[in-house]
Write a structure and sequence with these properties.
This protein has 136 residues and is mainly α. Helices cover 54% and strands 0% of the residues. Helix 2 runs antiparallel to helix 3, helix 2 packs parallel to helix 4 and helix 4 runs parallel beside helix 5. The radius of gyration is 16 Å and the shape is globular. It starts with 23 loop residues before the first helix and ends in a 5-residue tail after the last helix.
């Protein structure tokens, strides 16, 4: 019996299900509409997906607690974990913990820094999910 390769890019062997692609613009809009609550949900969701996909990282529950109590660490941690996805796949990291510097102290650049951080980090995460076959 002959096995056929799937028509999509399968996840790297040993990895779990990939995450969801999230529109950067919609996420920013939800942040404004929810008066800043949506980022806590976003942190939970993306960290949960990364943990399920690789078995590594803090996971959604810990990310939720950190985002709620010491939110300032989340931009650094999230960018670092997204960069780790690339590194484990043998690819050059698009973001790292240092990308979090766009968030803080970047917030003092007329609040542009957090937007730059989010565009870079969410964009890198979306690109990674696409590279493992997620459509969206």
């Amino acid at each position: 019996m002959t096995e056929y390769a799937p028509s999509y890019a399968a996840p790297v062997p040993g990895h779990g299900q990939p995450g969801k692609i999230r529109s950067t613009g919609i996420c920013i809009l939800l942040t404004v509409v929810t008066l800043g609550i949506y980022p806590i949900v976003w942190y939970y969701q993306v960290h949960d997906e990364m943990k399920r996909h690789t078995g590594q990282g803090v996971g959604g529950g810990i990310a939720l607690i950190l985002a709620f109590f010491v939110g300032i660490v989340m931009p650094y941690l999230t960018s670092s974990e997204v960069g780790g996805l690339y590194e484990r796949a043998g690819r050059e990291k698009r973001v790292s913990g240092a990308t979090g510097l766009w968030y803080f102290p970047g917030i003092f650049l007329f609040f542009i820094g957090p937007i730059v951080w989010f565009v870079k980090t969410n964009g890198a995460l979306n690109e990674y999910w696409r590279s493992v076959g997620v459509q969206g």
